Amino acid sequence: MDLLDNWTTVEDFEQIQKDTKEFIAQTGIAFLSDFIRIKSNEWKNANIQIGIFGESGSGKSTFLNTFRGLKRGDEGFADQGYKGNTTKKATKYTIKDNPNITFTDGVGCGTIQYERGYEYLKSLEIENLDFVLLMSNKNFSQDDAWFAREIRKMGKPLFFVRTKFDEILRSAKVDGITGQNIYEEIVTVCAENIKDSGIPTTSIFIISNYDPSVGDFDKLIHAIFKTLTQNKREALLYCIPPLSHQVIKEKKVELIRRANRVAFLSAAGAAIPLPMLEILNVNMLQGEIRFYMKEFSLTEEIIKNTCNKLKIVQKELMSLLPHFQSLLMEGIREMVLKSIQSVLAEKTTEVMAKRFLKFIPFVGTILSSSITFIACLKMLHKEIDELEKEAHTLLDKVIENLKL
Prior knowledge:
With 404 residues, the chain is an alpha/beta fold. The protein folds into two domains: 3-40 and 241-402, no CATH class; 46-238, 3-Layer(aba) Sandwich (Rossmann fold). It has 19 helices and six strands. It has helices at 3-10, 13-27, 32-40, 60-68, 118-124, 142-153, 165-174, 179-193, 217-227, 230-238, 245-269, 276-279, 282-295, 300-310, 314-318, 322-330, 332-344, 347-356, 367-402, and strands at 48-54, 91-95, 98-107, 131-136, 158-162, 204-206. The protein has a six-stranded mixed β-sheet, sandwiched between helices. α3 (32-40) runs antiparallel to α11 and α9 packs across α11 (245-269). The longest helix is centred in the last third of the chain and has 36 residues, at 367-402. The radius of gyration is 24 Å and the shape is globular.
């Protein structure tokens, strides 16, 4: 599968073609940059509501903070109940970059505050939720099984999340028990406790709230994203940090989709009879790459904070991130121009451009427009590939230092 095959299978081509054609017909091509900006930010319009329920002390607040990349002192930080009595009523939280994403941190049933029944379910407003996480730092109870049955009746995706696996592993190590044995034992017991709920064992995930590299965090993330529509999946991914290798991979998929859209719209703009490099919206492409860097946590501020947190010299960390370092030293604008020029010089670019001509009848048959598309597409895909690799490297370094 080559670059174009990948683009035509991943992108909803017919829709973007239709939208672009309508926009150009109504406003003219001069305002295409506005259209690109609008399409690039559509993900911010998605409304996502997530329910996180369980007894106080089960790790809900810690999960919320980790998932949103917040530390104590940050705006929106959820207080963590070290004494196990923090969450006494449902509290709503949002993500700073997108207030349309809402988390409801609620107390589980069977507690002093809430008993099983209609009133408890009504208070949770479950009908508005996209999916539900039921969290526990113990084996799931009959109250949890009842709750799961009710959620299942409502048709809402539900995930059982057994927390604090890192603490269990530390205790098991002292007793000489292997991590795999204790993991299998926890899953078996949890499955037994909820066997009458109608929820499959595959919906049980064992995690550490502090260390996403421990347990099933990656599996949980993948399962959650599978339940979301495309626009909601994109919105949620763009608002959480690259917590795990799975999140980084999921981000790459969505960024490729985004890059495909931007490259196509740049091709439409190239139908204007001006020199090619003037057609390329360099400012827009710079903005795209900055967006990718932010999504992969590759910014100067984040690297500085990471070094402070891990107590390592910044020069040491930067040596592991050569592409990111070159972006800072050369400048993103210079890199964009150099990369585009390099792609234009490749023999395959014009061949692929001629293949692409058949896809863009509404902007005419100007070869420059399809060459622009291929040049942008190759450049943006290359940047995503390079930044993804270094995001994995950065995460490995973080994990390595946290385990020391």
